[in-house]
């Protein structure tokens, strides 16, 4: 007799169950969505925070470990750029040379590559990321190695494809940061220290994180980019990271 290996109701998330039943109703496979009837029996979706280092001293240690990482120059630059720019991993690992202007110190992420709704992707402008001097220097050092291809950070096995997020997290694990910090965690690192230690305005930080994008009454993507403020902020941030990496005295983060 074949064993019953179907998951129980408590093993299925509420969100997944609702999606299944809504699809069933839409395709005439079920008369209605029954998830409201069994709501209490369904396991709620619990969002977990990505592990991230938010202490300046520990961040300095991470930066030094990244510089000493033996996995190759492309990975070392990726790790440093993640700390400086704190963009979404999917955007950074697919960074294209054609979107980078090193003379102007700007990286324009196409709207269709951003985490936006379909309408926002169509109507939105590119998310422009200022590149501080340190980021430009890293890119110039990497250009002879990867500049002949499409991606700034190509994959190790397939140079025509971007590096994988798993590869960067594997590097962090090899450096001893498994469970302590991940690639996505650089976003929390930048946001926390810039606000709590360097005292930058929340709206400027959120603009750098590309969290501010709402649809305006005119139907266009919000154009309040704070580009000048972000350029100044990121240069200060990159200089601060250099001090942390050098082991300089820093203002420690005061925990609540």
From TrEMBL:
Tree of life domain: Bacteria
Every Tyr recombinase domain range: 49-239
InterPro entries in the record: DNA_brk_join_enz, Integrase-like_cat_sf, Integrase_catalytic, Phage_Integrase
Pfam hit, one: Phage_integrase
UniProtKB keywords: DNA integration, DNA recombination
UniProt xrefs under Gene3D superfamilies: Intergrase catalytic core
First and last residue of the signal peptide: none
Sequence similarity: Belongs to the 'phage' integrase family.
Protein name: Tyrosine-type recombinase/integrase
């Amino acid at each position: 007799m074949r064993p019953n290996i179907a998951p129980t109701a408590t093993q299925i998330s509420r969100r997944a169950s609702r999606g299944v039943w809504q699809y069933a109703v839409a395709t005439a496979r079920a008369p209605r969505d029954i998830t409201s009837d069994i709501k209490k029996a369904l396991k709620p979706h619990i969002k977990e925070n990505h592990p991230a280092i938010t202490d300046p001293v520990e961040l300095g240690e991470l930066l030094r470990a990244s510089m000493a990482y033996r996995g190759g120059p492309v990975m070392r630059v990726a790790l440093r750029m993640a700390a400086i720019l704190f963009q979404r991993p999917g955007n950074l690992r697919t960074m294209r040379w054609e979107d980078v202007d090193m003379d102007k110190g700007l990286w324009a992420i196409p709207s269709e590559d951003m985490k936006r709704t379909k309408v926002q992707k169509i109507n939105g402008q590119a998310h422009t990321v200022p590149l501080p001097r340190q980021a430009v220097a890293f890119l110039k050092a990497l250009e002879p190695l990867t500049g002949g291809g499409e991606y700034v950070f190509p994959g190790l096995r397939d140079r025509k494809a971007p590096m994988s997020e798993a590869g960067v997290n594997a590097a962090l694990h090899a450096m001893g940061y498994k469970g302590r910090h991940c690639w996505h965690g650089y976003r929390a690192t930048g946001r926390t220290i810039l606000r709590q230690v360097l005292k930058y305005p929340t709206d400027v930080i959120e603009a750098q994180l590309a969290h501010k994008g709402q649809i305006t009454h005119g139907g266009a993507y919000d154009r309040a980019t704070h580009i000048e403020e972000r350029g100044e902020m990121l240069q200060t941030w990159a200089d601060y990271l250099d001090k942390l990496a050098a082991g300089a005295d820093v203002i420690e983060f005061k925990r609540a």
